[in-house]
Predict the structure.
Amino acid sequence: MERRLRSLSLDDPRALDVIREAKRLGFSDRQIAICLGLDEIEVRRLRKKNGVTPVVKQIDTLAAEWPAVTNYLYLTYGGWEDDIAFDHGKKKVMTLGSGVFRIGSSVEFDWCGVNTILALKRNGIDEAIMVNYNPETVSTDYDISDRLYFEELTLERVLDIYEKENPLGVIVGVGGQIPNNIALKLASQGVRILGTQAESIDRAEDRSKFSALLDELGIPQPKWSKLKTMEEAEAFAEEIGYPVLIRPSYVLSGSAMRVAYTKEELREYLQLAAKVSQEYPVVISKFIEGAKEAEVDGVSDGYDVIMQVIEHVEKAGVHSGDATMSIPPRTLSSKVVKKIQDYAEKIVKALKIKGLFNIQFIVKGETVYVIECNLRASRSMPYTCKTTGVNMVELATQAMLGKRFRDLKINGLPPLPHYGVKAPQFSFMRLSGADPILGVEMVSTGEVACLGENFTDALMKALQSAEFRMPSPGGGVLITVGGEELKRKIIPLAKALEKMGYKIYATEHTAVALKEAGIEGVRVLHKVGEFGKRPNILDYLVNGKIDFVINIPKITSNPTSIIDDEYTIRRLAVEYNIPVVTTLELASALVNVLEHRRKVKPTIRSLNEYMDSLLWKYW
């Protein structure tokens, strides 16, 4: 069929028959357009003009013994009539789901989609329509939506359903990245996008347009540039100084995002980013080292803004999906929090946001920089809603339907008497050879959120829920860190662990620094690569003498035997189910958890009990 299409002339009287057969065989408009040398929309217009359109069929879950009533629908070119009737007198809204589960997209977006469907039903919509193709989700349960289309989330298919159903509009802001990626194309074909408009979504998703907006608003951001050639990129990186961050547009989970420390890495990473973000620009910006990272989850009705500031435990450079998060912020000053809120409100007003949003920041000293804005539900949205007691998805849905927050008597968030901590969950054990070190591209496959009386209480519950095995008192802790500065910073943690009764093991240079600081009980282990020398890290890991590994490598671009050795330590720890921490900030928080656990039992309260302790809630 592909050969027939490539050789086809539209003047051929059999052309429509060939295209009709191609559609029956599953060729998309885009594939046909490539074969014919046309645009996807041209192919769409051609087939619609000539009556080549799909029909809606209903999956028969009753084995043809009774009339099928189950709400499973799909589109096909293998039929002549629709199985269902379309009542265009009803008020309908389409919601686009998030598709398959993968790194960066999981049940968090499905939670947002389901809450949107439920909110539509509660607020006067006769038919809430869900389009999604993942059977492993709640949004694709037959009794959640009024109509469920098991269909791909592409421009062609969404337009087909839209034209069949004739809804009031389409919600793209709760399904993660895929709906956002097609929002502008949908709008160009006359689809009414409910909530934040497609042009604003594009202005936030396109890195160069968003950076230009921040410059217009006078909001600080790392030095940046949109570059057209490799030579321009190299010259800009030399001008601002390495390291630099390569940032593709319209991506989820930091796909192809990299930190380059050398010209060689810059070239390699730019080529990767160009493959991932072919239609949109790649931006290079200065990577600010040693900064804190924070973000805002929020919702706007086009007039008022409700938002929650979240602080990351790890320093900037760890993807938000892999970071441990705290609500409320732990260490940010009130001045910094106020700046974050002010910058967020300026961005919301400039982009005319009506719905959910997420804005990410880095904080160096008292200076706040904006690094990213997503005009959709974030991965952390369910965590934010449940911690604060305010269902922002419900509010966003009502805003999209034209309601104001002030009419709902909502003008902010209730004060929090508790902490909420979100901890990532990883699957390194199942990924052969994967290095459990964290960076700007997301690698976690799940996450857990827990509430507690304080940050340490909530973190302890979250880590245990994420299957992080806490080392028992008297167990062995291996500490290996790179660089003199990190060695100085690890000393207080090593002292605290020794005081709690843990046996401290370290590599030669780390051990020297610890002994000089007064930690006399530290035991020296030879590196994995020092074959034949005993005692060796390899033997202790394999024989179960190490219960916890703190391995914080010095960031460098030059591959050395030290880097290879550190990777082997981390990988062996994973394979023997030994908890490993690779950032100083999380190591410090974990030491506090171990101290807390010795003195205080965790508080066990249900989510409802925590919510009922708030002054008010909106759920």
Residues 425 and 446 are 5 Å apart (CA to CA). Residues 557-561 have pLDDT under 50 and may be disordered. The radius of gyration is 27 Å. The longest helix spans residues 334-351.
